[in-house]
Predict the 3D structure of the following.
Amino acid sequence: MRKKNHHIRKISPFKKWVAKLHLWFGLAIGLIIFVVSITGALYVFKDEVQNALRKDFIHHSEKNIVNKKTLPLKVLEKKVDEQMREKFPLHWVDIPLDKSRSYKFNYYESDPRAWNYFDELVIYKTAYVNPFTGKVLSVQDEKYGFFNIVKFIHWSFLLKAAWGKYVVGIPVIIFLFMLISGIILWWPKNKKARKQRFWFQWKNIKTWRRRNYDLHSIVGFYSSFLVLVFVISGLFYSFFFVQAIMYVLFSGGKTTYPDYSHIKTTAPVEARNAATLDKIAAKVEALYPTASAYSLDFGHEHIDDHEHPNYEVFVKQLDYSYHINHQLVFDENSGVLLQNRPHSSKNFGEKYVAANYDIHVGAILGIWGKILAFIVSLLAASLPVTGFLVWWGRKNKAKGRNVRRLN
């Protein structure tokens, strides 16, 4: 007769319920979390890979640029349109402060009636242009670009962004619960159990089930805290309430995000001419000469003939991240500066909102932050796999016991 094992660890009713929810939620969303994690890992080094692939036209080959002036923006717009021959107008231009770099002219249109990514994004092309001659050096179709497709799988499973983000966002909320419940299940009851759970004790372990269980629980525990950061910063883009909570939390209780939409264009439309955009560009570069780049909108629409919405310019201070940026408001007709909001003048809540993307991809810590984000994303992708194998192993083990009893 087999002796009864009196040393079996007793589990509290609370942990039993947590374990059941952890299991069934994991089986329900595991594949989604695996895909989201893998695409997140792939996207982390997007800038580094693209810069390497596009190095031949990111920098133009114009000589002696110190003594040369770039062409006026309206002249460049006309030259680019003549070469591109697109039925859609230019949307915006990204202008680097380093004039050895090409300007990026962007064509972008979306269709709100579509239900999937490929129909919703009608056109998204980037033309790399020599700003001294207006020559288009290369055209990149971002709509079909590898990283843009990866991003929208990660963001909405290639469904329409307006509701596809919830198809991803809801399972990610469940995953947030699973990370917390996993820590609860891992947490040891006593010092002896703690020693076994902090690291792998595989010296006398031969079964793959036990090794896989340790991989799931120990890797899950150590990665959970960082995965939580990436999960919450990802939910920021799916749910407005997450944005609101994070802003209120980091702004010290402020419930209203600063709004500068009341700053309107007041100069008459007759004041606008071909040099207005160049006047705006010159002011931006004078105020922020050490910045990386800024964007100017070509597709600005008017509310009516008398009062126009404000014309905002986004200035990116660092080449590798967005978390330090400045915002300016101009009169789009006269080119007069109406508002200047440097990064230093923003409250901490605004700074967090600006930094959220860089936190999500690790760019806020530079290349080492991206490496960390890549590794953590792969670890997050492993959790649904090892978790499924834990369930599969236990299921087959139980079947094996039942067969032996029948025999």
About this structure: Confidence is low (pLDDT under 50) at residues 1-8, 301-306. The radius of gyration is 27 Å. The first helix runs from residue 13 to 43.
